[in-house]
Amino acid sequence: MKAVLTLPLLVAVISSAAAQTSPPKPVVTGLVLDPTEASVAGARVSLRRADGTVLAITTSDAAGAFQFERLAPGTYKIGAEHEGFQPATMQTRVGLRSPASVIIRLNVAEVRSEVSVTERAAELSTDPAANRDTVALNRRALDDLPIFDQDYVGTMSRFLDPGSVSTGGVTILVDGVESSRAGVSASAIQEIKINNDPYSAEYPRPGRSRIDIITKPGSSAFHGTFNFIFRDYHLNARDPFALRRPFEQRRIFEGSLTGPVGRSKKMSFLVSANREEEDLRAIVFAEGVSGVIQTTVLAPARNTEISGSLTRQVGEEHLISIRGLYTDRAIRNQGVGGFNLPEVATNFEDREDMIFFNHRGPITGKFYNMFRFLVARQHTPTTSVNPGPKTVVLGAFSGGGAQGDRLQTENHIAFNEIVVWSGQKHTVRFGINVPDISRRGLDDNTNTSGTYTFSSLADYRALHPFSLVRQSGNGHVVFIEKVLGGFVQEEFKVRPNLQVAIGLRYDWQNYFHDNNNVAPRGSFAYAPGGSRKTVIRGGSGIFFDRTGPQPIFDLIRYDGYRLLQYVITNPVYPDLNAVGPTSVVRLDPAVKLPYLVQFGAGIERQIANSTTLTLSYFGTRGVNLFRSRDVNAPPPPGYLARPDPLSSVWRQIESSADMIAHSLEAGVRGNVTRYFTGMIQYILGRAYNSTGGNPAMGPRSTLNSFPANNYDLSGEWARADFDQRHRFNLLGTITTGRYFKLGVAVSLYSGQPYTMTTGRDDNHDGLANDRPAGVARNSLQGPAYADTDVHWSRDFYFVRAKKEKGPMATLGMDAFNLLNHPNYAGYVGVLSSPFFGKPVAAFPTRRLQASVRFRF
């Protein structure tokens, strides 16, 4: 209903803007587009006379729009250029009236191994999407930098802000449509960005939690890339928790091919394929009844992805494309490592098919339309290797069986409809986002034999567990998930050096009966003086959360009748037929969708011809954050019995937690020195909240966070799980000569906190998260993290006369964790554990990776 009511508002806004911007003289407006479904923001657009004389220069805004005002009748040439694309020029005729909007389409540049920052001056712009604290990697940078296993999303994730990530996980946009991953092979990706236009009303989440992926378009000429990547255990350093280097090997075969369809100049194709074969070993470091357990377990994985797309230009201004994706993944012995012994392994498979459809082109006059549509299906079974009951000894080992059998299916669609209106000083952008309408299914056969939890090895020897979780009944669930959003945003130039953007967004999700999710957004950019070498930016906005499907699955299947979950304290061990009062999952009647209030201000300064310095402050307030609470837990002071003895856990999903985070960020981008080109980022930050979990690690980590005492939440306000005081990232290339060019990535982070627990269940709620009296959550400090990765490559040209435009081969070598710095993880906070205060796992040691690339 509210979405319908906004239509008159949209019409009023557009009509008002049009009335205010009737030009006294003809105006030329236009859009800069790439051959994909993305606008090109920040393009340098020039207006010239027919003889080549430059009359004016501007920059395309967030929608790719530009304009030149007060033009005399005549013939003009309009040119556009942007890093990573070939320059393009179009001619237009101006009469007594303004001509139709000009569409300038940029084709991908045939770049090889140049640096990602051009020699042209780093001109600053007041457009909302031209913020210089954007982290962006174009195709050249992706080829030159050390990217582990070509996992570009993983590499970029180090620049995300975990406090801005939604409960459902990181937001990934592929050509403007939300997706679970890139959907093409690595060589078919053109550009990746983080924090582009951070306060835009078009997106549900802030820019610092969103990864934008732009794929390569088709081409009018044949071009191809083939990559082979190889790693072997002979080239790796030994893991500190392994007795010896285990046999490991990884092979990646990946490539893409693009070109015209037949002799057509308006229809092209892109085919990409990726095959990953990984034979790794999980490292177990635990303690059993007979002492320390150190072993390795083979955990092979296979992944095949094939995608193909067709792009068709209709007329001079419309573009239609369709892309299909097939994915087949399989992992054996998943979940083994650290305390998890080989018998708790599961075998995982995932089959997914997707089809993307995109259309863009003008509607009429100054209106431009973009429509994007996705349809997908997914089939994901997980099977336990060992069907026996699971045994968990806190801080020592997990064995028995995995109890992880389940089948999850999904059939869903997503689409965007966005309209852009461009005027003399105004650009209005409005539309609807439907990130998910899906039919989701789950067959839950987990814990049919139960999971027994022991406080210590002594209790395990005495066969005295403190809890048993077991399930029986009907675990089959099917439901329809609906997630909808709509927005309107206006960008207007108050003065030539001052631009303001204001927007309004509405988000809605079914099952959570919260219909008042209106989110205003606003930002400004001001360039004092006439040199445009300094830009001051600021903005704020409200960003509503959404949960993903997991809590809805829980609400339906744990209704007390369908799937019966028994949480039994002090059970008999073993008892495969144990039953008791069943558990229930319910929503708090006052539940609301959580939201963030994020605000910030910053200054950008061009300090050299191609170098920019940024200094920014960001503040984030999380309101109504999710957590779970057992409202049927035994009450104090004795914690003797549940208020309703006929029921077990009443897990109530609440929006009762809060968060406050502050960060000060400094960055340098461009030609930092004579020899180094790239980006350097330092963040000084602090984050406190009253719920556990790291949203960047997946939705279950936050929604399943229980307080230590369900009746006393005072100890929950503490450092967030993802809180790190200092973060330093360096990403770029070092060039000192013709044959010496290194891609370098350096990450230096302060340690994250972890929680001290007793290992006992003194309050008899079935959970082992009790803390000593007076000890708050996350009171212990984890270790710092340091990593240095490098990439070296050498190009070989088959036709030296053509060099960059001819066929070539590239040999490369990567070293990850070059200095072999030990980065320990998995610190144990359980007081009853023999490993208390010690790590039981480590991030990977030094690994060398060889690669061969052929390109034409």
Q: Beta fraction of the residues? A: over 45%
Beta strand count: 45
Count of DSSP-assigned helices:
6
Principal-axis shape equals globular
Fourth CATH level, the homologous superfamily? TonB-dependent receptor, beta-barrel domain
The chain-level structural class is mainly beta
CATH class: Mainly Beta
Helical amount? under 10%
- What is the domain tally? 1
Q: What's the Cα radius of gyration?
A: 28 Å
Low-confidence stretches: 1-24, 110-121
CATH architecture descriptor name = Beta Barrel
Q: What characterizes the major β-sheet?
A: 22 strands, antiparallel, barrel
Give average pLDDT, whole number.
86
Would you give the CATH topology?
A: Maltoporin, Chain A
